[in-house]
UniProtKB/TrEMBL annotation:
The active site is at K360 (for fru-6p isomerization activity). The chain holds residues 260 to 624 of 624 of the full protein. GO terms for cellular component: cytosol. It is found in: Cytoplasm. This is Glutamine--fructose-6-phosphate aminotransferase [isomerizing]. Its EC number is 2.6.1.16. Keywords: Aminotransferase, Cytoplasm, Glutamine amidotransferase, Repeat, Transferase.
């Protein structure tokens, strides 16, 4: 049921205010300034003994894991490793007691993620799933977990499941933080910011017409760079993956400052760079990376916070999004990148919901 939308992907992009509300429903406690989860199957005492976390996943879910690394480090002060499930399953890393594994997966059926989970279980480590499909294999095999409640995701390119994964990781980081050092006041502040999020995503969707115009302008490019830093380095990877998957344009996501160590050689007047540059501690640094691209004649599309007039002087095109705290900015910034990929793909006549060579869930190795 497309509910009047031309494609599932667009419908699912537009469902994000609601899917985020559903992920948070009943999970925020003002009384304790924390998040609450029913299905972790580990006591608070067990969870306090966790001193290291491994996040494992594939594809877009792996990008959500990368955002989770920043969140868990900042809010819970936990050391985190993010592993491709396809790599983790065949490695034999020394994993100390007190390590918790999260398997992040929309479908709950991804073969590599399942195998990585089984391998960690076999070695005796507690495992939790962050999963969308209820009753899926990974949801059943993990010791416990959290459902996304995003509703069915039909488009092969993951959109709403990604933002639900990131918001769930934010709530989990809040929860782990509150079991440790995070203050009541800080917890209350984060809850307030989370509650405001669905409305901010609604406002972000107002950029649609502008994104469509920009998509038409750049739809003929053969290569794209996506650049962001810190919390928005994963946004750059995810934006590039969306474009690759559905428009078949070669795109690379990089931490913005890494560009000068190689990818800058790709820059010319035909290679657009998409800069993700919210307000925050690294804004000035990203701006100087942007200047380096402009100095080499590369077109620049910037995703920036509303009210940022500085960026408009340098970037060729700017997509404005609401200003949010840096921690939540990946959730807002990914929305225009999903729309950008969608419109570029449409412009090139691609099948956005069923891109070539891809399946919705990858149940083979
Ligand atoms: O169902 P999963 O989240 O485990 O799937 C993982 C990847 O196969 C998936 O995210 C893939 O990268 C998507 N096509 C991304 O849009």
């Amino acid at each position: 049921n497309l509910s009047g939308f031309p494609h599932y992907m667009l419908k699912e992009i537009y469902e994000q205010p609601e899917s985020l509300e559903n992920a948070m429903r009943g999970r925020l406690s003002d009384e304790d300034a924390t998040a609450v989860f029913g299905g972790l199957n580990l006591s608070a005492q067990d969870l306090r003994r966790i001193n290291r976390v491994i996040l494992t996943a594939c594809g877009t879910s792996w990008h959500a894991a990368l955002v989770g690394e920043y969140l868990l480090e900042e809010l819970a002060r936990l050391p985190v490793e993010v592993e491709y499930a396809s790599e983790l399953r065949y490695r034999n890393p020394p994993v100390e007691n007190g390590t918790l594994l999260f398997a992040i997966t929309q479908s709950g059926e991804t073969a590599d993620t399942l195998a990585a989970l089984r391998e960690m279980k076999r070695k005796g480590h507690p495992t939790l799933a962050i999963c969308n499909v209820v009753g899926s294999t990974i949801a059943q095999e993990a010791n416990g977990g959290v459902y996304l409640h995003a509703g069915p995701e039909v488009g092969v390119a993951s959109t709403k499941a990604y933002t639900s994964q990131v918001v769930t990781l934010t709530m989990l980081s809040l929860y782990f933080g509150r079991l440790r050092h995070l203050s009541f006041e800080a917890g209350t502040r984060i809850i307030g910011q989370l509650r405001a999020l669905p409305q901010l995503i609604r406002e972000t969707l107002h950029c649609h017409d502008e994104v469509k115009r920009i998509a038409e302008k750049y739809a003929h490019a053969s290569n794209f760079l996506y650049l962001g830093r810190q919390y928005n380095f994963p946004t750059a990877l995810e934006g590039a993956l969306k474009l690759k998957e559905i428009s078949y344009i070669h795109a690379e996501g990089y931490p913005a400052a890494e560009m000068k160590h190689g990818p800058i050689a790709l820059v010319d007047e035909h290679t657009p760079s998409v800069f993700i540059m919210p307000q925050g501690p690294v804004y000035d640094k990203v701006m100087s990376n942007l200047e380096e691209i402009k100095a080499r004649g590369g077109p620049v599309i910037a995703i920036a916070a509303r009210g940022d007039s500085e960026v408009a002087r340098l970037a060729d095109d700017v997509i404005y999004v609401p200003e949010v705290t840096e921690m939540l900015s990946p959730l807002v910034n990914i929305v225009p990148l999903q729309l950008l990929a969608y419109h570029i793909a449409l412009h090139r006549g691609c099948d956005v919901d069923k891109p070539r060579n891809l399946a919705k869930s990858v149940t083979v190795e």
